[in-house]
Amino acid sequence: MMHQATREVVQTRAGSVRGVCRASGSYAYLGIPFAEPPVGELRFMAPVAAAGWEGVLDATEYGPTPQRRLVGPDPWIPEPTYPGDGTLVLNVFTPAPGNARASLPVLVWIHGGGYEGGSPSGSWYDGQSFNERNVIVVTISYRLGFDGFGYVEGSDAPVNRGLLDQNLALRWVHENIAEFGGDPRRVTIAGQSAGAGSVLCHLASPLSEGLFSRAIAQSPATGDRPLAQARMIAAKLSHRLGITAALEGWRSASEEQILDASEGLGQEFALPDDPVTFADSVLDGAVFPRDRWASAMPFGPVFDRSDPFLPDSVMAATYGGAGYNVPLLIGCTRHEYTGLTAPMASEWNRKYEPRAVLAKAGFPKLVAWAMLREFPELAVDTSKVLGQLLTAAAFHLPMINIVQARASARVAAVCDIETGVTAPAIKAGTWVYEFAWQKPSTGLADHCVEVPFVFNCLRDEHVTKVFGTDNPPRALAAAIQTDWVRFISSGTPSFPSWREGERGRIYGSESHSGVKSARPFQIEVNTMRLMREL
């Protein structure tokens, strides 16, 4: 039954917005501007908060998106593109509009897409299922590609414009979410892939401190790089365009021209053709080390001592105690990028046996045996075994490094101003999960597979297409969303934190609910560590 229409209008600080009520009692407020359109004199500049408007803003349809083109012909997640200049918008899904007393917890979702693509307007990100559990969902947009992360020579244009967009959106949430029934003191920022990398950047940033109380990072791809790397990419791109690398040069190029010239910048990174060379490259750190991120992922967060948002790398900031007081739920899928080596499968599998390749690359027999025992689905596929090494290098080990950095972070003691008593600072917990359910279409738990489980949108037609089944385990979706809701609401999920025995949660096990308590990534991490020590 539809609720009264008067409840569909909510008053924000900038003006009134009218949303739409769905049959479930979930209200959607779409395309609300949190910043002025980043065009004209605001192009390549820091975001400016949206000016107010007269009357009631129609917020019943999604607004323009920073994404202008789909990334790849067949994206993993349905994230549509909408034209228009006013791209810095957000979407609010709530069960309690206009009820400031509801004080419901809030999930702010940051989409992924390698900092070049993605959209907050995808069907998978609809907050309806979270609303049914009394959690408000906000999905936000941010500038992408060079527009959001390109270096502009000799100007006031900040390099981390995309992250500053996110920061301004978080400030909007802090100021307005109570009018939608939310509690500004219980805001969880969450994201997947580049969105999860953004989450880690906000944990590391002094400018985002206090804007959220919890954080969730799903398959984080931080991709932060020093300013010199951003300068190199900008020089290469401006050369392609035939313009100067200064502000007037970039503004002389159209959005389409910059997008065209950006094509292929990330393709200059190539995997070795020979499987033994590939394995050696992973073990030697030649695959996805920091100094080659600018080739693998040309645009992304930039750290520099002069940058107010990210004065240090995410890892260094984490070791220094940044975000120590914010609970963090973090994890990856089991196979992430394992499927990227599929194009080499026919040739490699015909010529090489997995154990033989690992042995030739220097893996002791016992280590090779342990690795293939942990991943039996890879034991007959050389390309997937080596793809698993890529997954470990690009996702699993960096994620574990963040977890360990939080555990060993240097945190100053806290002094009570009134009593003068000094006490050790209390670190917030870190919880680690692994998503292991393998979709039938690939036989892998690869990148993005957990997202529709988290949002419990398994009936979405794109899920059926991507998964290769119309009957994924719904009990698993209920279990993982229950843990997410508990964390968003209270700051603790239903399993032990990392520092309590290094145990975590594996989703996609053979138990009835598809969940078990275990040590995620333990054998793989130990294998990679052992190889580094040999």
UniProtKB/TrEMBL annotation:
UniProt keyword Ribonucleoprotein present: no
InterPro entries in UniProt: AB_hydrolase_fold, CarbesteraseB, Carboxylesterase_B_AS, Lipase_GDXG_HIS_AS, Type-B_Carboxylest/Lipase
Domain Carboxylesterase type B intervals: 8-495
Enzyme Commission number(s): 3.1.1.-
Entry-linked Gene3D superfamilies: alpha/beta hydrolase
UniProt GO molecular function: hydrolase activity
EC category name: hydrolase
A Pfam family assignment: COesterase
Keywords recorded for this protein, A-Z: Hydrolase
Coiled-coil intervals: none
Family: Belongs to the type-B carboxylesterase/lipase family.
Record-linked PANTHER family: CARBOXYLESTERASE (PTHR11559)
Protein's recorded name: Carboxylic ester hydrolase
Annotated organism of origin: Ancrocorticia populi
